[in-house]
Amino acid sequence: MRFGRGRRGWWRMLLTLLIGVAAGLPAAGGTAVAAGPPSYLTMEASYGAGTVSNGWERVERYLDTTSGFRTEGFPADGRGDQDGKRVTYFGGVARPYSGRFLLYSAPGWDTGSRATPVLLVHGANDTADRAWANPGESGGYGCGAMSCPSTGLMQYLSARGHRVFAVGFAHKQGDNLMQAQVVGDAIAVIKAKLGVSKVDLVGWSKGEMSTRAYVSSVKPSWGRPYAGDVRKLITVGGPNGGYDYPYAHGWAHDFSIWPECGGKVNAPSPHAKMTCYGTYTAHPEFSMTPSGGQDNYPGQRQMLARWDGVYGVDGAAQDWYTTYYGGQGFYTSGDGIQAAIDAGSLIKPLHQAGVPSSVTTYLLAGGSPTVVGIFNENRGPSDGVVFVSSALDTTGVATVGGKATVADANHLELGWKSSSASQIASWLAA
After folding, report:
1. What is the pTM of this model?
2. Is the distance from CB of 155 to CB of 167 less than 8 angstroms?
3. Can you list the positions of beta strands (E) in 80-229?
4. In 148-230, which ranges are continuous DSSP H helix?
5. Which end of the chain is flanked by fewer CB atoms within 10 Å, N or C?
């Protein structure tokens, strides 16, 4: 009789636990239990062994059905389109709807020994593959050095027991407000997969903007606020204080963009018109500010801030004054940096919103202005693109866990160099 009562009590306890699990309630000890992703997220496709590359274990495509997302603008010549395996992952679509995103899972994503999973968020004109798993995927100099490695931060962290994920955006230069919502979506999926309550974020370059916007609840009018699910935020070469590189070095920058000059890079120009080899042409599709009904680089505009009061402007460059301050130069014409800032920079709103004190923030800068193939930022200490003082700017950050400069890493090397990876790993483990 006593045995029977004990069994009934045991079954009642087990039933209570199972009901709690089914409802997504915390189990004993306070550990969160997976309850499935939010209803507004749909997994559309999954690619596993034999179909993914660069060392990832799985890539999944999700759709956020929230009203407000849209298909952003792409340059007509295809330079901003998805490429390689990403076209496959996006269902054969080179210009995806921005409510779609990719979630990459590294080996050990469900078996790693570290309690808090890590979400890696890449920067402008990049992919999760090249940024985190195979820096040499784009060929020579794609990693910022003469020789590129075939593995990156993903493998480095995974080998040390971290459960690593990465997000892939639909637009390589997209609106950081929409991409911040996608960061929140990716975190929601990870929480559902692993039954955790918090994730660590690593945002590299432009990726700092979307990660910081997410935790700061800087969002579009239709967007969701921060869900309180980030433990640590690590910014890597992030323009925390903004950047003005395209305007300070516009002449050299334009030659890599303007097709009449031989340019092919997917980046915005500070000019609306330019003379190349005697021909004066207009290319509103490459403009930093909305022009001619086109706006293909909103994410770049959102990173802008003026540094002329700190480091001046490169006065040796052709049309330097009109490029930075606006007007008609000898070869170029543009509205200047202030007009672009007024058209939608997010630096001031992010500073004003602040990073919550519950999110311990770490800031990593590169100290080597040696990026191969570009005119490196030379007006002050920089990683070749972002000033060290901008990358380490803590304005609005309530809880600073640490700051560091990797002296031998340029802007692109920060994502894979061992000295940078070691610093990131030490912060994650702290």
Report:
1. 0.92
2. no
3. 100-105, 118-121, 164-169, 199-204
4. 153-158, 176-194, 207-215
5. N
Strand partners, 397: 355
Please name which of 350, 357, 415, 418 lies closest in space to residue 385, comparing C-alpha atoms: 415
- How far apart are alpha carbons 241 and 386 in whole angstroms? 9
CA 22 vs CA 17, 36, 216: distances in Å: 9, 10, 32
Q: pLDDT (tens digit, 9 = 90+) per residue, 340-382?
A: 999 999 999 999 999 999 999 999 999 999 999 899 999 999 9
Q: Which two tokens stand for residue 82?
A: 């998805």
The pair phi, psi for residue 327, each rounded to 5°, is 130, -175
Cβ(129)–Cβ(53) below 8 Å: yes
How far the first Cα of the chain sits from its last, in Å, is 53
Residues 162, 107: Cα–Cα separation, whole Å: 10
Structure tokens given for 71: 């298909």
* CA 267 – CA 82 distance, rounded (Å): 14
Say which DSSP state 261 is in.
Answer: G
